[in-house]
Amino acid sequence: MKLAHQIKINVFSYEKNNEDDKLVLNKFLELFPFDLKDEKILLNRTNASGFEDRKITIFEATLEKEKHTNLFLNNLIKNLDEGQKKLILEQM
């Protein structure tokens, strides 16, 4: 059963050096229960400027195949605690 048609995940990094961007990227990749490269899913990285020319790095991936969306959502649900699940239901 297809749980979602498309999932787009964006993560913003406001850190000032590349080492911090790497940490944010590693945490971003931990969201996926599969390797993006192996599954041929494009990982976009965009640089932007915020207030006072503060550097922002945006990491983005889009999941479109049923296999990927289902695995991602099942992994996400598995890693949420009861309070987080309750909050999501309340916000729906």
Radius of gyration: 15 Å
Structural class: alpha+beta
| Spatial strand order of the main sheet | 1-3-2
Distance between the termini: 21 Å
Order of helices and strands: EHEEHH
User: What fraction of the residues are assigned to beta strands by DSSP?
Assistant: 25-35%
Q: Shape from CA axes? A: globular
The strand count comes to 3
How many helices in DSSP terms?
3
Low-pLDDT stretches: none
Overall helicity: 25-40%
**Major beta-sheet overview:** 3 strands, antiparallel
Rounded mean pLDDT is 91
Task: Describe the structure concisely for a colleague.
The protein is an alpha+beta fold and 92 residues long. Helices cover 39% and strands 25% of the residues.
Question: What would you say this structure looks like, in words?
Answer:
- With 92 residues, this protein is an alpha+beta fold.
- 39% of the residues lie in helices and 25% in strands.
- The chain has three helices and three strands, in the order E-H-E-E-H-H.
- Strands 1-3-2 form a three-stranded antiparallel β-sheet.
- A hairpin with a 5-residue loop joins strand 2 (43-49) and strand 3.
- The radius of gyration is 15 Å and the shape is globular.
